[in-house]
Specification:
It is built from 6 helices and 12 strands. By secondary structure, it is an alpha/beta fold. The strands form 2 sheets. The chain has a 9-stranded mixed sheet with strand order 6-5-4-7-8-9-10-11-12.
């Protein structure tokens, strides 16, 4: 008995085979496609420590002999690792699109303070770590005089981030003096007094007290005569002339 051919199954099989062949052909073609263009996108809008040209240079230097490279020769993980080793970069993501364009999306570190300690000067980033100064950009952040002890690093970073993310504190506090006992003194804009912050305890409460003090005193002419504003006592703000 002659078995009837199911032409639908035949055509379906041929279509699947054709699609598979096209997929293999396209994949092989993409593998040998040279990278013609590098697109760098800086995701941080408030920092300019590193430029697109500097990032592109790091990427190209990872290519063999700094020459053209094909998709199959790319080591995206290695490129990301090279970028992330840069002291100005917090995170990067590298990928290639279907047109063979290499994309690099880079998030720069955020500087929350600048330290001057003897002959040393450097930034502190949002994680409390050191980062170098940049020839391309100078961040407007409080100047820190002295050195914080490792045991206080986390709390100090928390204080700096709170100041950085608060519009009033960010524009008001211009300097922080670290005393030998690790207590802090703030230097502020617009007024001649010093703010005794004390040790890194009850940070939010002390800062809230200071904001309330300025809010209720800014219309009082006597605020211009204060020499010292003490935040050590969290129940009250003590001022002296």
């Amino acid at each position: 008995m002659i078995k009837k051919i199911n032409w639908f199954d035949v055509f379906l099989g041929l279509a699947i085979a054709l699609m598979f062949s096209l997929l293999v052909f396209t994949n092989n073609r993409n593998e040998v496609r040279p990278i013609e263009q590098i697109d760098v996108k800086l995701l941080s809008s408030n920092n300019h420590f590193i430029t697109q040209e500097m990032i592109e240079k790091i990427i190209v230097q990872s290519f063999p002999n700094n020459s053209k490279i094909t998709n199959s020769e790319l080591d995206l993980e290695n490129i990301e690792n090279l970028l992330n080793k840069n002291e100005m970069i917090a995170h990067s993501e590298v990928f290639v699109d279907i047109n063979g364009k290499l994309h690099a999306e880079v998030t720069q570190k955020t500087a929350v303070a600048r330290v001057i300690n003897g002959t040393e000067t450097y930034y502190i980033d949002a994680n409390g770590n050191r980062m170098p100064l940049s020839k391309n950009f100078s961040a407007h952040v409080p100047i820190v005089f002295g050195q914080i002890k490792p045991a206080n690093k986390e709390n100090f970073a928390s204080l700096l981030n709170t100041i950085f993310n608060d519009e009033f504190l960010k524009t008001t506090i211009t300097g922080i003096q670290i005393n030998p006992d690790q207590s802090l003194i703030f230097i502020v804009r617009d007024y001649n007094y010093l703010v005794e912050f004390g040790h890194l305890k009850e940070i939010d409460r002390k800062l809230d007290n200071y904001k309330a003090f300025v809010h209720y005193s800014k219309n009082d002419t006597i605020i211009g005569y204060y020499k010292n504003v003490n935040l050590r006592f969290t129940e009250q703000v003590v001022c002296t002339k």
